Amino acid sequence: PVCKTRADTVSVSTLTPMLRYGHIKNNFVFNFLDYLLWLRNKENDAHIRAFDFTFRSSVEHYFPRNPRFESDKIHADVCDSFGNLCLISAEKNSSLGNLLPSEKQKEYKNKPADSIKQYLMMKEATWDENAIQHHTQTMTEALLLCLAGQTDH
């Protein structure tokens, strides 16, 4: 398979720290993950099947780092984890600012998501620390399955 590189040296414990905000060396990981998610889900989800791969360059915190109200803040380690990040256009990232996930969902209503990862995040009824941690695990496992040559397609 295309992505079978260094599979013997990569694990959840070695990959997770590299996928944190500020530690991701190349945004290609988001595009690659979107492709893997497209392969895995295109047959069962019309939105994913119709996804248009376009240029995006801005890392978005789905749950904002600095929400408008201090009481809405979540732990920084969770907020900066891979599960809370997606790649969107710089224009959309600046317009979404510090909106909470529920407000971002309203902004995207009847508009296509910028990434498949973002689309999956927006499908969650509640986006809190538990949802972020679960999404981090799920997305990291998708990358690791690919490294092991198991892309589920």
Task: Spell out the blueprint of helices and strands.
Layout lengths: L11 H4 L12 H14 L4 H4 L8 E4 L14 H4 L5 E4 L1 H7 L4 H8 L7 H7 L6 H19 L6
Antiparallel strand pairs: 1-2
Shape: globular
Question: How is the biggest beta sheet arranged?
Answer: 2 strands, antiparallel
Give the ordered list of helices and strands.
Answer: HHHEHEHHHH
Name the strands of the widest sheet in spatial order. Answer: 1-2
Mean pLDDT over the full residue set: 87
Beta-strand fraction estimate:
5-15%
**Terminus-to-terminus distance:** 12 Å
SS summary, helix count: 8
Helix content: 40-55%
What is the CA-atom radius of gyration, in angstroms?
Answer: 15 Å
- Poorly predicted regions: 1-5
- Category by helix and strand content: mainly alpha
Number-wise, the strands total: 2
